[in-house]
Write a structure and sequence with these properties.
single chain; about 140 residues; alpha+beta; 3-stranded antiparallel sheet; about 15% strand
Length: about 140
């Protein structure tokens, strides 16, 4: 009978240890699920912010190409005109206008405007150096 009580006295700590291990694994599993969910939410928020920024840049490019005055201008005059409109559109979209740089690719009726966005601060420069090119409508150009 003394032998049986020694086993039962060992059984309680072993069962307690197994239960604690099971509880710890479940808690750890729950923590991992919460962290995964938080990571997913963070990726969705970052994706939305990036999409919003890209959309704002594209709108600035489209607006600047549409609002170019009619007729042919010199490359520098045309580029300066587009730059002013693009910076104004970028400011209206909540972007820093100093990060907007315009280049006009002159080719008569096939003139294109390239806007380069250089923001090294936004999400560690993810969008830094992105080029957006649009054709200039109508008989505008240089």
């Amino acid at each position: 009978m003394g032998h049986l009580t020694s086993y039962t006295s060992m059984l309680v700590p072993v069962v307690l240890a197994v239960v604690l291990i099971i509880v710890a694994v479940r808690i750890l599993s729950t923590i991992v699920k919460i962290l995964a969910l938080a990571g997913l939410v963070a990726m969705l928020v970052v994706g939305y912010l990036l999409y919003s920024r890209i959309h704002a840049i594209q709108q600035a490019v489209d607006t600047s190409a549409r609002q170019a005055s009619g007729g042919l201008l010199s490359r520098d005059a045309f580029q300066n005109q587009i730059q002013a409109v693009a910076r104004s559109a970028a400011r209206d979209a909540g972007l820093d206008p100093n990060d907007v740089h315009v280049t006009a690719l002159c080719d008569g009726p096939n003139t294109k405007v390239t806007l380069r966005y250089t923001d090294q601060q936004f999400f560690w420069g993810v969008l830094d150096g992105q080029d957006f090119t649009v054709p200039v409508p109508g008989n505008n150009g240089c």
